[in-house]
Amino acid sequence: TSLIDRQELVSSEPVFKKPIKTQTKNSAAEQVAGPMIEFLRSKTNKSAVEDVDLLFFKSLLPDFKKLNRKNQRQFKQFVLTTLNSYIDSQEAQESASNDKVSYGTMVVLHH
């Protein structure tokens, strides 16, 4: 018997094995997949703590989409007009408050 036959008798495994491929380089798909998975995980985690104000406005969408185009435009106009009114009122109050502080400071400085 030859040397190869003897080795096969001693070992239950064949003498010549198919070489095991060692993964030295990632394929292009693997290079993209890893960062993509991390990106998706980060987006999923961020959405769990999503802004409550954004959630409120998103909750209006189903009803908003039921409106025809004209009513959607009117709704948008109403919301913007109302929002501007609130902002104007708030800015006027803040300005009046700042004027009182400034006037009070001036009175103290002039005495």
Automatic annotation (TrEMBL):
InterPro entries: BESS_motif (IPR004210)
Signal peptide: none
Chief subcellular location: nucleus
Swiss-Prot/TrEMBL keywords: Nucleus
Start and end residues of each BESS domain: 50-89
Localization per Swiss-Prot or TrEMBL: Nucleus
A GO MF label: DNA binding
Pfam families, alphabetized: BESS
One GO CC annotation: nucleus
Protein origin, superkingdom: Eukaryota
Protein name: BESS domain-containing protein
Organism: Schizaphis graminum (Green bug aphid)
